[in-house]
Amino acid sequence: MIEVDNLKKSFSGVEVLKGITTCFDKGKTNLIIGQSGSGKTVFMKCLLGLITPNEGTICYNGKVYSELSPAEQRDLRQEMGMVFQGSALFDSMTVAQNVMFPLDMFTKQSQSEMMDRVDFVLERVNLIDAHNKYPAEISGGMQKRVAIARAIVMNPKYLFCDEPNSGLDPKTAILIDNLIQEITREYDITTVINTHDMNSVMEIGEKIVFLKDGYKAWEGTNKDIFKTDNEAVTNFVYSSELFKKVRQMYLEERN
Ligand SMILES: Nc1ncnc2c1ncn2[C@@H]1O[C@H](COP(=O)(O)OP(=O)(O)OP(=O)(O)O)[C@@H](O)[C@H]1O
C-alpha cells in the first residue's frame, strides 16, 4: 500500500503538485488520469523517489520515504518495478538479457539462478520462445510483455507503469492491461498506472485518481465513474461520443 499525504512540488516557484492526498491499495490496479500537464508524470516520479517533493509524505507499507536513510531508500527503490512508456528495452541485448539486467545489476545470484528466474517470468508473460530474439525482431505487444517481465523479475512490491498501452492496437492494449491486472493480483503488488487510455479506465480502473491542474479533482472506481456528476471528470472521460453513449446506456440500465 502507498499512502500519499499533502504532496506538493514546485519548479522555479511554479507549483505543479498542489497538495495531493490519496492511497494506492495492494493487489489492485490503481490509475492516475488527467489532461496533459496536470502533473501525472511528476506525481509518478515522486512515487518512484526520482523527484523530491517540497512538502508532504509518501508512505510505502508503513515506511515514510523521507524518514529512511539513503541505504534504506535504495533498498526500497529495489522493491519497485517500472514499465516505461515505449518499453525502453536495450536494442543490443536479447530478450533474455534485457530481463536478466536488473538481476545482474542488483543481486548476487548465480547465472543458473538468474536464468531460472528469467525463464519463469518470460513464461508468466506468455513469451516462451523469444529468449534469443532482439527487440527489433518482435512486435510492440511482445516488447511490452518483455518490459513487464523485466519489471517483475526482482519480485517487486510496487509496480509503476507509464502509459503501458501507448502505440498498441486496442486488442493488444486490452491483453496488456489484463496481464498487468493478473500479475498485480497474483503477486499482491501495489500497481500504479499513468494512462490516457479510457479503455484501461473502464477495464482495470479499480482505483482511479483524477488530477486537474496539480490537484486531485476526483477519485473512485471504474463503476463510480459512470455515476459521478463531477464536471471535471465527465468533461475529461466523456469527451468521446462513444463513451457518452456507453454511460447513457449504463445509467438507463440501472434505472
Ligand atoms: N523538471 C521540470 N522542471 C520544470 N517544470 C516541470 C518539470 N517537470 C514537469 N514540469 C511541469 O509540470 C507540469 C506537469 O507536468 P507533467 O509532465 O507531470 O504532466 P502530465 O500530466 O504527465 O502530462 P502528459 O500527459 O502530457 O505527460 C507541466 O507544466 C510541466 O511543464
From TrEMBL:
SUPFAM superfamilies: P-loop containing nucleoside triphosphate hydrolases (SSF52540). The keyword Manganese does not apply. It comes from the Bacteria. The keyword ATP-binding applies. One of its GO terms (molecular function) is ATP binding. Residues 2-238 form the ABC transporter domain. InterPro entries: AAA+_ATPase, ABC_transporter-like_ATP-bd, ABC_transporter-like_CS, P-loop_NTPase. Transmembrane segments: none annotated. Keywords: ATP-binding, Nucleotide-binding, Transport. This is Phospholipid/cholesterol/gamma-HCH transport system ATP-binding protein.
